[in-house]
Amino acid sequence: xxxxLLWSGVRGEWKDCPPDEIAWLDRQTLSDNxxxxxxxxxxxxxFRYVHHRxxxxxxxxxxxxxxxxxxxxxxSKAADVQRTASHVLPLATASYEPLPVTLEExxxxxxxxxxxxxxxxxVPARSGTVPAVxxxxxxxxxxxxxxxxxxxxxxxxxxVRGYFQRNATARLTMAYYYQEYIRGLPAPQTxxxxxxxxxxxxxxxxxxxxxxxxxxxxIWSERGxxxxxxxxxxxxxxxxxxxxxxxxRVAADNERAGVCEMARQRLQYRPKGSGA
Length: 276
Hints:
By secondary structure, the protein is α+β, with helices and mostly antiparallel strands. 38% of the residues lie in helices and 18% in strands. It is elongated and about 65 Å long.
């Protein structure tokens, strides 16, 4: 069984996290109850052991949660963790808990607000065989080996990240389309596709749908996961506030330069209520 350890600044030692309990990153753990903007459990981030792995999840409605590799071996500033984060969990809402991030072996830093916590995940060497499990658990064990959380393939994150690196337009389109999710607004809604098309000067309304279908194929090797797409992209750091800032800058530049107006004319778009 893997072992998760959190560094206790108060004690000056590593604290073991029992797998049968949630290790909450609450007000007490992060700030010794000094920072009243932090939440108490269960309205905060935490670590839980499920399906034979540790994962980071968040129910925090105030702060995004950043996970970054611990390359320096010491607690860094929150800004450094946020800049180098490999995963970002967006704000939670009453009806939306961001998809968790599965922890990989090694040393990590987690930033919540201005606070940073060090952690270390030690994974024992695996034997060459998978222990036999009786009944329905056997199917679950086999599935856990072959696919990641929510049925996503193990290489799904790498495939999407590589695609976004090659296709900046697709990345900015998704960031603009899911901007309310990235901003952590209550009950977030997607942007109207035509608004995205005009703001980013895409070829047509179908362009957004095409990107969504392509990404679903990268992640789940099939379509039909549209409702899970935003959570997957956000939970794995594939869309970040920096991507949204870039997308909104492009949209603002297009509006100032008259590109959006030309797109409206090209697409013969009339806002609702215009009487045209």
